[in-house]
Amino acid sequence: MSLENTPRKSITDEFLARLEQHRRYLYHIAYRLTGNTEDAKDLMQETIWQAHRKSNKYVYEKSLKAWLRTMMTNRFRDQKRKKSLKLVALEDAFIQSEPPHAAQTKSVEEQVEQRMMMEQVKDEICDLPDIYRRVIVLRHFKGYSYTEISEALDIPEGTVKTQLFRARKMLKERFSKK
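The line above is the sequence of RNA polymerase sigma-70 factor, ECF subfamily; the predicted structure tokens follow.
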């Protein structure tokens, strides 16, 4: 161990000790936000972990409690937002993705057939596991870039690409069986 790492390590350990002093306070806030013990414990742990990771961004003149409270409420809001990604708009996305003149040039039979196909695709996407469904929806129906999906879901860009690949593969396999 070099001497250069020692001061940083002791500062980090000191900061972690300060975070641990606020564990009870954080739990009470987390419980008020989540309404149950397990989710509150998870949120508290995630907040402490995130605060420890971002310790270099903490300004020591400011209240640590206020900083932690803000971090926790933001994390809670982000989690709620992610969970609320709904597929209700899928059908609208299909309709909007169709060029306006296309419906006029197709026969009634073709329109019905296309509508049935869209319903089938929608059903298959809804049956995908959540981790795959959300990236498909954001990429193909909301038009998000890989970077935007990565930021929205708080996952690495490489994971976004992997999940999209697997989701498309699953859909392809499902349609090839029909």
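Note on the example: Residues 1-6, 85-92, 95-100 have pLDDT under 50 and may be disordered. The first helix runs from residue 5 to 21.
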